[in-house]
Amino acid sequence: ARKYDDPHRVVGITNGANLEWSAGLFRRLLKQVGGESVDQNRPTAAQVKDAKRFAKQEFFTELLAVNDQGQPKHLESEVFNRFQDVLRDRTTGTPARVDPAILAQPTVGFVGRLVVEKFNMGRAWARFVIRALVRAGVNVVLFAPIQQKSDPSSPSSTIALALTQLAANLDREWKPGHGRLLFIDSRDSELKKKALTSLDILVLDSDKDTEANGYTEVAASASGALVMAPPFHNGEGLIRGQGIPIDWSAPGHGNTILPENQKSEAYLQSLLQATEVYFDRPDDFAAHQATSVRLSRPLEARLTAAASLRDFNLSYQLPVDVRSDGRWRTGVVAPAG
């Protein structure tokens, strides 16, 4: 609207999220660690840290789930077999038991459609960025359903092939202390919710002027995730606007990570700094995650509904100028007389 309707006043109302659903798992885990009296909108850093560990365990365990016939519940067989190998507890050898070391590592990832305008392998998700994060002990979780999957030459399929090949290379390079690259092509909404809840940092690197308020579809901040936003001046809708820029020197101040510029190196530097805080100052990292939960409250859909009703009602109260006001043309109101 900003680009195409410059002469007109633009009323912008955000999308809304059903936080009872999208953050329902995290809230349940908060009760598990803090009791029934826990403040779900203002959890402590310790409560968030403990809940996040349980969230990772639920998500990784669910990836290894099988149905009554013993077949993978969510994944294709080839992907399932790989996940069994890389996620299993090597101390016991039990295929369905998740390696405790993985639960102690940070999860950085993306949840959304696998399209070039949302998943840029020339910026945040360059191959060398993913490789450096995995080597630094980060589990990179990409929950990204392939678009136009029937066409192997589609841009989405091309990205998926590159990620699959990169994951195989990283498996061969793996050493104790490394993380894993987990690419998940799934449209399962419950699995998506568990993926979002497991994230410590959600990276949303949409191209400039391609995003409005899609953040509410993946409102991971309500589940204690920090958010990395692109460094564009408009912040790409709510990706940046949902929070406050982070200050690592002041525990709890801010929840949004902003790279210095659009270069992949800047994204990597910011993510490695966050990783360092996660390992060296876990309580400080969790304090920022607790802040993320508090800042997520305006994302609730009830506020969106109230704002929409208010502006709709206003349309009936204001005088209509048929020469300049588009409301009567779209049928919202009729000109007097």
Summarize the SSE layout with pairings:
Elements: H1 19-22, H2 24-34, H3 45-63, H4 77-87, H5 100-103, E1 107-111, H6 127-135, E2 139-143, H7 155-173, E3 181-184, H8 189-198, E4 201-203, E5 226-228, H9 238-241, E6 256-257, H10 264-280, H11 282-295, H12 301-317
Helix pairs in contact: 2-3, 3-8, 3-11, 10-11
How would you sum up this structure in a few lines?
With 337 residues, this protein is of the alpha/beta class. Helix content is 41%, strand content 7%.
Question: Can you offer a commentary on this structure?
Answer:
The chain is built from twelve helices and six strands. It has helices spanning 19-22, 24-34, 45-63, 77-87, 100-103, 127-135, 155-173, 189-198, 238-241, 264-280, 282-295, 301-317, and strands at residues 107-111, 139-143, 181-184, 201-203, 226-228, 256-257. It has a six-stranded parallel beta sheet. It is globular, with a radius of gyration of 22 Å. The chain starts with 18 loop residues before the first helix and ends in a 20-residue tail after the last helix.
Dominant shape: globular
Q: Strands across the major sheet, in which order? A: 3-2-1-4-5-6
Using only CA atoms, what is the Rg? 22 Å
Class by alpha and beta content: alpha/beta
The ordered H/E elements are HHHHHEHEHEHEEHEHHH
Q: How many extended strands?
A: 6
Classify the beta-strand content into a percent band. Answer: 5-15%
Q: Major β-sheet, in short?
A: 6 strands, parallel
**Secondary structure: helix percent:** 40-55%
Mean pLDDT: 88
Instruction: Please give the count of helices.
Output: 12
Distance between the termini: 30 Å
Poorly predicted runs are: none
